[in-house]
Structures are given as structure tokens and as C-alpha cells.
Amino acid sequence: MDTLYGELNPPARILLGPGPSMAHPRVLRAMATPLLGHLDPAFLQIMDETMDMLRRVFQTENAMTFPMPGTGSAGMEACLANLIEPGDRVVVVVNGYFGERLCDMAARHGAEVARVDVAWGQAVDPAAAEAALAKGRTKLLAMVHAETSTGVCQPVEPIAAACRRHGALLVVDTVTSLATTPVAVDAWGADAVYSCSQKGLSCPPGLSPVTFSERAGAVVRARKAPVQCWYLDVSLLARYWTPERLYHHTAPITMFYALREGLRLVLEEGLEARWRRTETMSRALAAGLEAMGLTRYADAGCRLPSLTTANIPHGVSDADLRKALLTEFNIEIAGGLGPAKGKIWRIGLLGESATRANVLLLLSALESLLARQGARCAPGAGVAAAQQAFSAAA
Amino acid sequence: MDTLYGELNPPARILLGPGPSMAHPRVLRAMATPLLGHLDPAFLQIMDETMDMLRRVFQTENAMTFPMPGTGSAGMEACLANLIEPGDRVVVVVNGYFGERLCDMAARHGAEVARVDVAWGQAVDPAAAEAALAKGRTKLLAMVHAETSTGVCQPVEPIAAACRRHGALLVVDTVTSLATTPVAVDAWGADAVYSCSQKGLSCPPGLSPVTFSERAGAVVRARKAPVQCWYLDVSLLARYWTPERLYHHTAPITMFYALREGLRLVLEEGLEARWRRTETMSRALAAGLEAMGLTRYADAGCRLPSLTTANIPHGVSDADLRKALLTEFNIEIAGGLGPAKGKIWRIGLLGESATRANVLLLLSALESLLARQGARCAPGAGVAAAQQAFSAAA
User: Fold this and answer.
1) B252 and B323, same structural domain?
2) Does A341 lie in the same domain as A375?
3) Same domain, yes or no, for B261 and B309?
4) Nearest Cβ partner of A15 from B35, B260, B267?
5) Which residue of A has its CA nearest to B22?
6) pTM above 0.90, yes or no
7) Which of A121, A167, A321, B340 has its CA 20 to 30 A from that of B351?
8) Out of B1, B32, B34, whose CB is closest to A12?
9) With a CB-CB cutoff of 8 Å, which residues 214-233 of chain B face chain A?
10) Residue of A250, A271, A272 to mutate, testing the B interface (most B Cβ within 10 Å of its Cβ)
11) B55 touching chain A per CB within 8 A
């Protein structure tokens, strides 16, 4: 017999990066439930309940609302791949890594991509998006509501209004916003919106909830050629998610158990309460970081509550600090992507991870590690400022 | 507060369909483990261990051996999408539903598809495959080793030899064969092989192990245009699975916990022992079905041990019997797909589902339900024949 690996025994991390977030024990236990078949009536009921709860969380009445059998990127690509046909003009708002990814994917699916660029860390001026829409007949505009690479929240409403004026479909990435800050698909008038099972919903990564408006559904049905990617073809998937129950793929049963439990937890807490909790934790974290002398990366006025970005103080080693935070304190935060690599930290307050204790643990650990690297910071200042913010919010 | 759904409380099914199979309690418990980040060194180690164990199970030394972040169909499409460029000639061996799916996907990715058809329930004559290869310069031949819709095992070796003679890459579907019957990627000389986390590996559905030969890797690197589907682009994925650890998607952490534990169980039992167990269970099931007067669907000489197909006796209602089997006896088997719908039953003996008790439970339940529908069958004959087969094997 070959050498085997030992029992699974990972360290117990406090996950404060941009995802995955921590899962509630009820979600973890749900996944230990024995399997059902993907066409079992008991499983079909779980699918229906999941769709219903997803609609409430997305704040939509869209019939086509279900999780894609892949991670958030699968949902992103499903929205683009199903709506774009070769030669279509697509406007993409780019102010971070995931805006870049939208451009990459849209181009792969044959779109003529018109970019609306702004520096990382800033929100795009809706007038710039409208100007891009005005330059040619546009099939769709794609934008990231919550840019995971920068911590910027891009307001959807003014861009949605511009899309309506120019007859363009609107695709919105809510990967880092869903169930952490208001996402209102129907009120926005968005046509295709995707998110993920991790982060705000606090389930493990692996599913990507998507929702398509009636208008988007009609565009998919009117395609000249089938979507090239069979796995992401929502016209096939929709037939499994409706009473026809046509076999497409074998659903990831256990991930659905997790998602159903995660959605129950979100709705038990209540969407508004969850947004408020995220906001409270985020304010306390920000107060703590600022008291420790750290400056923010994302522009004031467009900062996400679910993801805080801070500039790494001059002279501090990103790699050393994050390594010590992980190996000594069991806390995960993330560094920057692309042009922000080595320059910023990204701290997520997502779902179950967004607790008062986690904010305080992070601030105290960060303080001791910054001191070790010679950064000047008054002892206890970060934690004290956060505690004060919590008291003010109570 | 809106009405919420109750706790997850599914019935305890005995899963004897073509998948998902039942998961070992150790796999279920592994999934209740708190999450790690997808770039945590502890998680990267889990990835490396998983790759190593997957290579052993596929019997390959291919460096590019990792699970795609989707179900088996995602692996199928990844193999085709990455190797096919528009205009490539692709030969597909079609003797069932999944052969048809290969044709559909290959055509979507721009291939000129040449089909080698044979009736469902039969294996293809390798000479017919070779004749198709001889008709034009062929980029690749795709075939299904274990056709889940018919229960046919298509021998790979002679077709692999024909591919070598004609300079075509060989893509093999081992979704229903891996870890149930010999799959020997390197000995076959196959270039791209995919499977799934469920069925033989007995983990929940949601991951699709794939393996690419050096030759296939070179073909992917030499592509003129990137793969249209970003999510399935193995040249990007490979950079996450190698020391570069380039971020692509957020890995489905919990599914990896499951797969690692499932692979440990396979290697603890031993591949040969697992194949023998599947064979023993399958023979006993077949003996039982035949003693009850049921005839087989797949041709003798090309029958899979992991999936048994039986013709539904005249006068018996497929829907009524399977519904009673599920709701009264908690046993799932599957009906036929496509032209076999309503005509056959498909009984899986996959991974943890393939036990002596499950074979006997199914045969006894089937006997009572067939009797209820008026089918003639000597009482106890099925169970007795299966017991005899078990004794003979012991």
C-alpha cells in the first residue's frame, strides 16, 4: 500500500479576507447530511425553496433565479455568455480587477468591448458610462457593484437609468455585496445579476446565484446560435429549474444543502439587520484602522461596508505581516491584486465573519505585528477606537 | 418576518441510480470542517495531496491532473473546449446519451463532427472508429468508456491504438468507470480524460477530475485563440494548480475536503480491491435480476460492472414501480434516457453504494413491487440467486 495522507485537520482560521468567509455551524452541519438524488422529489423541493429564498435576497420576482453549478466566476460568465452574440457592442465599467475580468470574458464571447475606465479605488462617473452608451448601439453594459479588488461600491441606479435611456441590458456583479449591503435587482431594473455562495451568504464557495429579468430571458431565447458553452447555457439549465425538470447536469447536492441553510440564516436575521450589522462592524474596523494611523485606499464616499481596503504603511512588509497574522494569530486577510499588489490590505467583513470579536481580534493582532515591524502606533488605540464606535452604534 | 422553511430533513435514501452514489460518513464529516482560504498554505497542501491521489486513481503521471470546479459535464466540456479550435475535425463514438452530448459540445466549440454510430446498448467496433479516422485529418477522437445511459463498457485500447496510427488525440469519458473498473490513462495513452467526484469516488457531485497528457498540454499552449469559456480555460486553471498559485476562481473549499477524503478511502481500500468489490456486487445483482426473469439491456460481453441496465418487463409501469421503490422502500434507481425512456432501469453499484446489503435490499423490494404489478416471479428467487453468487465469489 502506498503512503497515504493523514486525516483532514486544517487550522481553525478566522477568515477576514475578501472570501471565503466563515460558515455558520448550521451550514457546516447541513453539509454532513446524506445525499439525495438530483431528481428526487425531496431534492426538487429543496431547489424550489432555494429559488424562493434567493429571490427574496436578490429582491426580485424574476422567475429565472437559481444558482449556477460553479463559483462566482461561473455566474459572471453565464450572464455574459448567454446575452452576448458575436459582434455585439458591450460597454464595461472598469475600476478594478473584476471589471478587467468582465472585459476579458466579454471579448472571448465575441463582443466589441467599449471600456469606461477610472483609476482603481474610485467610482465611475455615471456621465462617463452614459457617454460610452451614446457612442453606438449597445447590447449590454456590465458593471461591478462591489469591486472586491478595491473596496469600492459603484452606485447602480444612475447607470441603470442611462442603460434604460439607451436600450442596453444591464449586467451587475454583486459577488461581494449580496446580503451585506442593499442589492435590489427589480428596483434597479437590472437584467442579469450574479453573486456567489461564499462571502455575504457565508456558505462555502461553489455555487453562483444568478437572476435574469424577463427582458434578458427573451434575449436568450432569441439567440441566433446556441451559447458556445454548454455547461453555462441557461436555456438548458432553466429547464431543470422549472417543472419540466429536464436533466442537464447532476446538481451539486451538498452545496445546495449548504445554500439552503445559509439563506435560511440570512432571512432569519433579516436583510436589513444584516446590512446594519455589516455597516456597524465596518465603521468600527475603519475607526480602529484610522486610530492606528492607517489610511484608506478606496475613495471616501464610495466605500463598501463588506470590504475595507487600507494602504500598507511605508516600511511595512506585506508578505511578512500577513504570514505572521495567519500562522501566529490564525487570521486571514488579503493583499492587493494587480496594480494594488504589495500596496494594500483587503479586509472582508462578510456574513458570519462580521462579528465584533473578529474586528477586535484583528485590530489587536495587527497592532502587535505593526509594532514588531517598527510602525508607530499608540498602544491599544485601534481597539479603543473600535470599542467607541461600537458603543456609539449601540 | 416572512414564512421560513424548516430545518433540512431529507429522507434517508439508498442511492442505486447512476449517481449520485452514497457518501461514506467520513466524507460527510469532512465537509463539516470549517473553511480555509483558497490561498492558505494549509489549503494548497490539500490541493497537492488531492492531485497526487487523483494521479494514482487515474493511473497516470500527468502533471496536469486536477479537479475542475464543476460537475462531470464541466470536465467533459473542459476537455473538448481546450483542445478544439474552430474547423477541427473531431470523431465522436456515439452509442448512448453521453456520446450525443459529446457531439453537441464539440459542435458548439466549432468542430466539424464525424460520428461513429452504433445502436444503444452495443459497443462500437474499433474498425468503424478507425475507418472514420482514416476519412480525414482528425484533431481528436472522443469516446465514452462507461456509457451511463446504456450500461455499456467500450474497450479503450483498440481505439487508442487507432488514434495513434492516425495522429489523433484521444479524449475519454470515465465518469461512470473511475474507481469502479480499471481506468489506466497512461497505459491507454489517452490525452484528456475526465470523471466526476460522485459515482465511483463516492463524494457529492460538484467537482470533475481531469487529466491532460503532455501532448494535450502542448496542443492547448499552441492554440491560436484563447478558449472562449474563461471558466473552463485549463491554461489559466493550471497556473493555480502549480507553484505559481495564480488566482483564477475561489476554489470550492468544502468540495475539496470531500474529494480528499473520498480519495483516501479509495486508496485505503485499494484500486484492485474496489474493482473486485464492484464486480462481485454486479454479478450478484445480475444473477438476482435474471432469476427474477428480467433480461439485460446492454449486450453481453460489453457490460459495465458499475451500472446494470435491465429491460422493464412487459406490462410493468416504470413510473409506478420507481415511485413505490423510492417512497415506500427509500431506494432510488433510474429509468432510461432518450430512446430507452420507459424501457429500461439503470441500477448503479457505485462506490459506497455497492454493498451486499444494498443488492439484497433492492432485489427483495423489487420482487415485492413486481409481484404487486402482476409480474410472474418465483418468491425469493432473486435474493437466493444473489446469495449464491456471493457465496461463489467468497
Assistant:
1) no
2) yes
3) no
4) B35
5) A35
6) yes
7) B340
8) B34
9) 226-232
10) A250
11) no
Q: Examine the domain organization and report whether A209 and A244 are in the same domain.
A: yes
Return the residue of B nearest to A251 by Cα: B205
Chain A partners of B14 at a C-beta cutoff of 8 Å?
Answer: none
- Chain A partners of B12 at a C-beta cutoff of 8 Å? 34
Residue B10 in domain: no
Same domain, A166 and A296: no
Whichever domain contains A333, its CATH number is: 3.90.1150.10
In a domain, A13, yes or no: no
Domain count along chain A = 2
- Residue A273 Cα, gap to closest chain B Cα (Å): 12
**Same-domain status, B82 and B207:** yes
Work out how many CB contacts closer than 8 A connect A with B. 242
B17 and A8 in contact by Cβ < 8 A?
no
Both A46 and A116 in a single domain? yes
Please name the residues between 246 and 275 in chain A that touch chain B, using a CB distance below 8 Å: 247-255, 257-258, 260-261, 264, 267-268, 270
- Domain end position, chosen among B267, B287, B312: B267
- Of B229, B269, B331, which to mutate for an interface test with A (greatest number of A Cβ within 10 Å)? B229
Q: A280 and A259, same structural domain?
A: no
Domain with B69 in it: what CATH number? 3.40.640.10
Please answer yes or no on whether B251 and A205 come within 8 Å at the CB atom: yes
How close, in Å, is residue A36 to chain B by CA atoms?
7
Last residue of a domain, one of A217, A250, A267: A267
Tell me, yes or no, whether B213 lies in a domain: yes
- Interface contact A20-B35, CB threshold 8 A: yes
- Tell me the chain A residues in contact with residue B23 when contact means C-beta distances shorter than 8 Å: 34-35
In chain A, residues 85-104 whose CB comes closer than 8 Å to chain B: 101, 104
Range of the structural domain that residue A177 is part of: 25-267
Residue B180 · residue B266 · CB < 8 Å: no
Per-residue pLDDT of chain B (394 residues; tens, 9 = 90+): 456 899 999 999 999 999 999 999 999 999 999 999 999 999 999 999 999 999 999 999 999 999 999 999 999 999 999 999 999 999 999 999 999 999 999 999 999 999 999 999 999 999 999 999 999 999 999 999 999 999 999 999 999 999 999 999 999 999 999 999 999 999 999 999 999 999 999 999 999 999 999 999 999 999 999 999 999 999 999 999 999 999 999 999 999 999 999 999 999 999 999 999 999 999 999 999 999 999 999 999 999 999 999 999 999 999 999 999 999 999 999 999 999 999 999 999 999 999 999 999 999 999 999 999 998 888 899 999 999 999 999 8
